[in-house]
Automatic annotation (TrEMBL):
Known function: The reaction center of purple bacteria contains a tightly bound cytochrome molecule which re-reduces the photo oxidized primary electron donor.
PTM text: Binds 4 heme groups per subunit.
InterPro entries: Multihaem_cyt_PRC_cyt_su-like (IPR023119), Multihaem_cyt_sf (IPR036280), Photosyn_RC_cyt_c-su (IPR003158)
Keywords: Electron transport, Heme, Iron, Metal-binding, Photosynthesis, Reaction center, Transport
Biased amino acid composition, Pro residues: 360-370
Residues covered by region (Disordered): 339-370
Biased composition regions of type Low complexity, renumbered to the chain: 343-359
Protein's name according to its UniProt entry: Photosynthetic reaction center cytochrome c subunit
Coiled-coil zones: none
Amino acid sequence: MKTISVLAGVVAAALLTVAMLVTSGWVRPPLETLQNGYRGTAMAQVHTRKGVAETREANVAPAAADPAEPGDELAGKTYENVQVLKDVTVNEFNRLMVSMTEWVSPQQGCTYCHNTENMADDSLYQKKVARRMLQMTQHINSTWKEKHVGGTGVTCFTCHRGQPVPANIWFTDPGPTRPGGFIARNNGQNLAAPSVGLSSLPYDTLTAYLADKDVDNNAIRVNATTALPTTKGKPIQDAEKTYGLMIHMSEALGVNCTYCHNTRAISNWSQSTPQRTTAWHGIRMVRDLNGNYLEPLLSTFPPNRLGALGDVPKVNCTTCHNGESKPLNGAHLVEAYPELTKPTETVSAAPPAVPTEAPASPPAPAPTPQ
């Protein structure tokens, strides 16, 4: 019986191959290749032209609102209960509020966050969350400007894309439901989860590496730093988790491994592209945002907004990038909204120090393809 099944599979594969070669519609789509490393290192990004066009179309930034008219009145003195944008003029404040409505709740309007009969009222949890998200946006554009977001910056639209809840948020995966209360002993894998590219890799690497702001900075690294072993080293399960995180980042940015790594020396920082340093800081930025801005909102969110294990919605690389190496095709969003670049917190979370294994500053510019 087994032999018959094998033969049937071989015959089916042969017929499918013949069909691909002699029938119409089975042609390779036009490809778009961008070389980002020296020849011979296979460092190139390969996409279908159709896929590139679709991704770009899905990541179009909205036009900035018209500039606010000059004015001297400050929002904090004119309106009640303004806590984050007190030193912004009334005209600039109103302009930003209108923009935020378009970015976050175009269908619901102002009532999504505000009690329109009393705009100073804080009874809606959405308003409390929005206030904290404003501070988070300012924190990203100031603290993480040099290390990750650069001059492009972020606005509410970067994540929300016209939706009250961003499409690409995540919760800790509770794993499969099993009768009898038995715990699966599968290293948290073999479920083909979207978070790891539908592979059999561990399906909840995000909780392990992106949720905890105090996680060991060397937790992701599994490569040895010496030619000969000096310690017991890490188990293969850790390597699988690390690879799962790399798959997430690859799909989030719509790139392959060679966007950051040199194929001839994957772990070598000196032969990596500058994007690897940017990504290194990006991982730390995501931990910072989840740990210092989202996790503290646990008591603010209603139960229906929490995950299966009662955790808050969190961000990852896809939340901003949405399949593009540069969010929203690299549009400079924050230039038109300078009030989103000035932190209003008395004490803000600082990014972690760079460990010795990673460069303290970005490496030399990427090699020019030859």
